[in-house]
Amino acid sequence: MDIRQKLIEAIGREIIGPAPHPAYSAEDGEELILSRIHGTPKSRYGVAMLYPQLTINEGEVDDKTASAVEPLFAEENEELKGSRITDITGSEDDEEPVSLANQFLPSAMGFTLRFKRTPAQNTIILKTSAAAYEREKGFRPVLKVAPENAGQMPVTKANGEVIESEFWKRKSFAIDPVTIDLGTIKKEKIVKDIPLIQADKGDWLKLKIYNRTTPADDSEGFLTLTFVLVNCMKSVTDGSRNDKYILYQTKLRLETENEALIAPYSERVAATNTAEEDQLKLLYRKKRVYAIGHGTAVNWKLRNLGVESVETSAIPVYEMPQVAPAGDVVQSMYDLSTEGNWGQAAGILNDLLSAYEQWINGIEKEKEGLESQYQKAAAASIAKCRECYDRIKRGIETLLAAEENSDLVRCFRWMNSAMPWQ
Which of the listed residues 282, 313, 344 is the one where a domain comes to its end? Predict the structure, then answer.
């Protein structure tokens, strides 16, 4: 059993949903939410939700809630620079709704990807999932949670009256996948504007695709697109109507059969980068970013040498690999302690010094094959390694030049005796 995966799934059910319980499920298996047990749907869950546009949080106004009533579309008008592009002003129909993803109660979510134009297999498939919770007529009894197969008994008042509660039923939407041939996209800004879910008064959920390709992208054969899911319903003063049109468990997934189609996202290179930022870019140069999320995190699935799918993720997950020694040198604290043989310890210390020098020489050769943007950071890192090597060498030479019964050696060996006890 993968305990880690079980925990991730449990967290997802708790804060994203759905989390149906056998006692509170409809006849068709859909989840029921009772106000006396779970609260309202919007208080039960907290992420992967798209609110009607400009929904105002009913509560104490603070800096965060104030952002929920900002203008619907970005008003900035910045020039295109490098491979990045900001929102461009224009009419409301032309505007990218990315700003809606940054509100306290977001109305949009999505991601931006960079594609490599290829002669064939330019097809992508977009799959969307979402649900809503509808207030049902009547009431349902509040039940005691009983052991499995023991049945459920209603909760009653002192006079025997059954306690009932208003309730909502989950409604999942069947949304058809959208197939797009990237080869047909030219220089139009709005690539697609596709209604996915209809409400009684018009479009409810839309998939909007915007072309954010810069001249630099175009000259290098790349295409940059932003995919956004937008709750098109407008907020009204009737809070119950706003709640009715909240979308839950919203997710967008992009798939392709062409592993070479999705290209690494172009990183921003600034002259103001600090030395630490340059070092991090060097260390993580092989951990490429394939998508940028808007109002959500993004996960991608690698296959062979490329990417086969990208999807929104309300709960970012990363597995930190364990850090273990390379195994080139056997370092035994016992041998270096007062219990070990000091003659053998001298050989171990010299082996450590030799292996470290060889490792530095290896990364110095590797530096020659790095791109120019990493050369400065690589040179600085190697210089620090050389400083460490010189310091270690001086320390070992000092230890080996001292008598075995000297205070210096005894302190060093006592230190190694103490380490295994920690």
Answer: 313
Q: Are residues 245 and 186 in the same domain?
A: yes
Q: Which amino acid is at 100?
A: L
Three-class DSSP category at 421 = helix
Q: Which of 285, 313, 341 is the last residue of a domain?
A: 313
Tokens at 78, concatenated? 């910045």
DSSP 271-318: TT--HHHHHHHHHTTTS----EEESSEEEEEEETTEEEEEEEESS---
Could you tell me the mean pLDDT of each successive run of 10 residues in the chain, 422 residues long? 88 94 88 94 95 66 35 34 33 60 88 88 94 95 72 84 94 96 90 93 94 91 95 82 92 94 81 85 89 94 90 90 72 84 87 92 94 92 96 95 93 90 76
Q: What is the pLDDT of residue 213?
A: 93
CA atoms 148, 149, 155, 160: torsion sign: negative
pLDDT for 328: 66
Whether pTM exceeds 0.85: no
Same domain, 305 and 339: no
One domain for residues 296 and 372:
no
In this structure, is residue 322 part of a structural domain?
A: no
Task: Identify the CA nearest to 229 among candidates 209, 202, 255.
Answer: 209
Give the DSSP H or E segment for 381.
helix 372-401
Domain span holding position 28: 3-313
Same domain, 308 and 370: no
Model pLDDT, residue 380: 95
Q: Torsion over CA of 327, 330, 333 and 339, rounded to 10 degrees? A: 160
Q: Do 224 and 83 fall into the same domain?
A: yes
The amino acid occupying position 332 is: S
The pLDDT, as a whole number, for residue 1 is 61
Give the CA diameter of the chain. Answer: 91
Q: What is the DSSP string of 201-214?
A: TEEEEEEEEEE---
Do residues 280 and 375 both lie within one domain?
no
Same domain for 303 and 354, yes or no, is: no
What integer pLDDT is reported at residue 273 of this predicted model?
80
Q: In total, how many domains does the chain have?
A: 2
DSSP conformational letter for 24: B
Amino acid occupying residue 239: G
